[in-house]
Amino acid sequence: MTSGRDTAGDDLARAVEILEESKALRRRPAVLESLREVVALAPERLTERLVLARYDEQRGTPDESGRAFDDCLDELWREGMIDAPLMSAFLRNAHFGANPEGTVARLERLSDVLDRVAERPGQNPRILAISRCRVLLALRHREPFLAAVPVARELAPANRMVVELADVATRWSDPGHPDHDARKVFVIGLSRTGTSSMHRALEACGLRSVHWVNRLTGALPDVFDYHLHDAFSDINVSASFESLYADFPSACFILTQRPRESWTRSIAAHYENYAGVTEPAELLAPAHEQRFGGRYGEIHRSLYSNHPTWEAAYDAFHQRVDTFFADKPAASLLRIAVTQGEGWEPLGRFLDVATPDLPFPHANALPVEPESARA
Known about the structure:
Elements: H1 4-24, H2 28-41, H3 46-58, H4 64-79, H5 84-94, H6 100-117, H7 125-139, H8 142-155, H9 160-173, E1 185-187, H10 195-204, E2 209-211, H11 223-226, E3 231-233, H12 235-238, H13 241-247, E4 252-256, H14 260-275, H15 286-289, H16 295-303, H17 310-325, E5 333-336, H18 344-351, H19 371-374
């Protein structure tokens, strides 16, 4: 006879399996449905609760990510265990809302809880050390961060995140920091033009690259991050390329391009899938306007939401780029069509760097649908 506990365990295992399949296929509605089922079956799974709250807020539930942050942090403080995905989820939720002061308060509270749970038996010291570094960096507490990084390096010297944290610490402690003349690379293409692929290509060329949010801190990069990394991509960069040109005189700019008709189909499907949005103006809703302390709204107004159609947004942005760079040195801008097969040769020539003997990355190639999802 099968017990109720066994049945519940089977249900959870199946729900998690479906969730992973939906994530692999990048089907946000299916991911949401699966997340709800997982959380209903196992509310102690704090990572899934935090992710679900972010997605719900993005689709119109006000302040849901912040409420989940507070509730889940209370549970972590009472009896939970920290791991890397949970730490990333806490950081993303802390930065998600409209109130920058609230973000700082949540990060401070997260730091305090980490100190408390460190005393609990069974916690992984490597995860705790890395988590402390990430929170201190997010708070921009320089001296405590610089003191915490050597501890993480001793415990996990080969960990990729530790390597990145150590590099940030080296740059932040350099007497010449910040160096406004350091060369930066800004990828200014619109969403769905190969910016993720270009980010991976820049990493393969040895650059410290940030795509969309800083994965170390969960925050949208700003001038603080620009001085600590080499390359940046996604619409937060596209929205402000003029000011970046003025602030970083040695910067290189890469415009990832895609044919208008192909881009329009792709961007419409992308926003409908991930945000339930069918027209650019719908991005003016509070759920989108208020994220990341209001910066998300500023980005969308700069690129999309003030235009009646995706086609109009595309035309306006490319006219903006053409006009701005018309009187700039030709060597400051590379136009490249990653989605049409251009890759290492023009990139290596533009940056004057050696490129790896590897296929050019294609980060968002259409995934293969598993048999279980087709049944």
